[in-house]
Amino acid sequence: MRLAKRLAHAGVASRRAAERLIAEGRVTLAGEVVTDPARDVGEDDALALDGRAVAGTERRVCYAVNKPVGVVSTARDTHGRRTVTELVDAGGLRLYPVGRLDADSAGLIVLANLLTHPRYEVPKTYRVRLAGGRVGEPALARLRAGVELEDGPTAPAKVRRLGPAELEVSISEGRNRQVRRMCEAVGHPVLELTRVGFGTLRLGRLRPGEHRRLEQAEIDRLRTEALS
Question: Which CATH fold would you assign to the domain 3-53?
């Protein structure tokens, strides 16, 4: 693991702030000053900041949450709206959302105690209810082939029909409101959108507002698939 990342995971500072601390010569490895933030270090290496030992890497804790409509997927909100982190009592542990869902969308979101960012290529699966009547084969074919949007063409989506005007859509890109814009582009605006999958993790039987703590095996799969 890179030195700056190790410091960030240990809760010393954000990765960018850790890079500054390293550049200032305030971090030592086995008693020697290290100024390269990309230096490879192990979890058991003896690190110190300003002469004080740095604890080992904090254990990752993750929760699966079914975000209701109207709740924002941020750690805090300047407009006083309810945030997704308020849905989980983590015993004082600070949690961060992994990825985003619009306030008017519902479904699966992951909360973790370590700052992390989802890789864009991880599949995200949505159940969408659409306006405009039955979704015809031409519209399905366009979604599966990729749709031209104002910010460029999308990658092909995996699409499965659930009903005349209800689809399951899986994408691996991370554009803003992408599924809504794709469906509108083929003539079927979204009436209701729920994320039901994030990589191999599934929403399951969680009801709106409910959460569950992930098992270590699930966290390990998520780290492999989706977390950088």
Answer: 3.10.290
